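STRUCTURE REQUEST FORM
Protein name: Protein argonaute N-terminal domain-containing protein
Source organism: Stylosanthes scabra
Requested output: structure tokens
Priority: standard
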Amino acid sequence: MDLFGSNGNDHEDSLPPPPPVPPDVVPAKAEQELPPEPPKKTRVPIARRGLGSKGQKLTLMTNHFKVNVNNTEEEFYQYSVALSYEDGRPVEGKGAGRKVIDKVKETYDSELNGKDLAYDGEKTLFTVGSLARNKLEFTVVLEDVTPSRNNGNCSPDGHGSPNENDRKRMRRPYRAKTFKVEISYANKIPMKAITNAIRGQETENYQEAIR
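Status: completed
Returned output:
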């Protein structure tokens, strides 16, 4: 004798049928409740939970400085900087960049609308407010002189008079180099992003504001 029925589901077949639904009742579909979204965490650039209370006190000098933003409605404009020589070769050295941009500021201040330029020495430049155009091209000339190892006032043998090599360096004329500068618009960063970053609030322009 088969104790579980012919199909092995005697337990399911023994359950009573569901009660009939009255004709005036409309079945309601149960809505699945989604779990609440976790609250957005506030990122603090430097989280300090209090001053130290143990160990030896010492004086620490840092390069941190306080930043206050009075006008949060202004915007930073980021520009890409491309430096090249007169023959089109790109400027590889890092030392010349700041001198070239300083010369651009000195020579073309009116074309730059009198804007102050914050330059990182390589390929990025920032201004408060936009420049006159999205792409600007300038040409500047820098004069340079090759430094003498002995400053042109003594010889390696220590007798106090310039030797032949020093005299040649002293007679060497200034060398002028021509640089081409291209400044192109790259991005716009609201000043408010800096205020939010100081408060520890992460926004869309968080990384650019910190930079």
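Reviewer notes: The beta strands are 75-85, 118-119, 124-128, 135-144, 175-190. Helices lie at 10-13, 95-107, 164-171, 191-198, 206-210.
Form closed.
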